[in-house]
Amino acid sequence: MPRPRSLSHARLASAALAVIDRDGLTGLSMRSVAKELGMSTMALYRYVDDREELERLVVDLVLGTVDTEPPGPEASWQERIEVLVCRLRDAVAAHPEIVPLTVAHRHRSLAGLRWSESVLGVLTEAGFDGDQRVLALRGLLGYVIGAIQLEHLGPLAGEGTIAITELPPDAFPLMTETARNARKVSADREFLGGLALLLRGLGT
Question: CB-based contacts of 149: which residues, under 8 Å, 6+ apart?
């Protein structure tokens, strides 16, 4: 029998995202989402097959907020890529617990695929092709995913950096000095600075 339409995919995704934002990714389950919606777990199975389908809906919901329209050609290709990357960062960083889901389901998310298509378009116009274009896209995706995880799980202003500054300086002179400097670097400066280095490397 067809599933009833009284509960939209958008509402399901919003409920699942609320659970993730509150309880973390480990808190996501059919039972927890059903409770969020005020319904029984069995009733939820009328709308989605399993947790994996919930995960895909969440990824689509978050990535669907990303503006994938590339900036105009009057800007350099590096500037255009930076805009697209920052849009993706802003959307995902608002819900950092979903980062593993974006990795697992990116190939099934039309919203995520549209972002990649726009990035590939800019890279193609800049002269990237073949293996070079593959490596550029993967490098950008890897940077965004890794940078978001570092920012939220091990921020420069966090306890890890403080602990490194307290290491014996005779044994770790460069680590302790670098950690002291790192505490002064904002999250935006860290992200944009790393992205600039990556883009500079891609341009060589």
Answer: 96, 99
| Calpha distance 174→85 (Å, rounded) | 31
Length of the chain as a residue count = 204
29 residue type, one letter: S
Nearest alpha carbon to residue 87 among 104, 63, 117: 63
- Residue 183 · residue 156 · CB < 8 Å: yes
SS3 (DSSP) at 28: coil
3-state secondary structure 34-52: HHHHCCCHHHHCCCCCCHH
Cα angle vertex 88, ends 94, 179, to 5°? 70
Query: pLDDT truncated to tens, each residue of the chain (204 aa)?
Result: 344 457 899 999 999 999 999 999 999 999 999 999 999 999 999 999 999 999 999 999 999 999 999 999 899 999 999 999 999 999 999 999 999 999 899 888 999 999 999 999 999 999 999 999 999 999 999 999 999 999 888 889 899 999 999 999 999 999 999 999 998 999 999 999 999 999 999 987
